[in-house]
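Translate sequence into structure tokens.
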Amino acid sequence: MDSIVTKKALKDVLDKKITRDEAEEAVKTLIKWVGDNPNREGLKETPKRVINAYKEFFSGYEESPEEILSKTFEDVQGYEDLVMLKDVNFNSHCEHHMVPIQGKVHLAYIPTKRVVGISKLARTVDIFARRLQTQETMTQQIAECINSSLKPKGVAVYIEAFHQCMTTRGVMKPNVSTITNCFIGAFKTDGDLQQRFTSYILNR
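Result follows.
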């Protein structure tokens, strides 16, 4: 019974629409908490600016990557080889500290009967990036979304990124990058295909 009540309470919290005024008040509270005055001239407009920035940073919650990838093309003249996007820059935010993650995504898939516009793949990266994330989760989400939407022979996703939760706080290691990857289908079972994908990444 307690667990049912708890789940209902959580759902009520998530379903409650937070107003812009409430969000701006939360920013004012944080300004006070760090030791400054939200009413001084330089900070008066800060809550509004922060909320505007957050709307942009986290716009991925308002978009559907599946919808973006739903428009495909079947007239590919029998093309069955690798389709790859290299050096897709992204900006995200760590879900643990809400500080920036910046890096690059390299992705590829092997089509069966249909392909998708390459800009749609880049947009898919942005949709997942513009949410609170861990790099591991984001890597998996991008790969699984492409796989479920396009039904290709295989998908590969490789991400290299710098996390400010590590580079500007905590252990303070500014030159450390984090690498994650996900291989599905042919990319998982074929070592030569994996190596080919990696060689394209390293071939600057």
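Note: The domain at 67-202 is CATH 3.30.1130.10 (GTP Cyclohydrolase I, domain 2).
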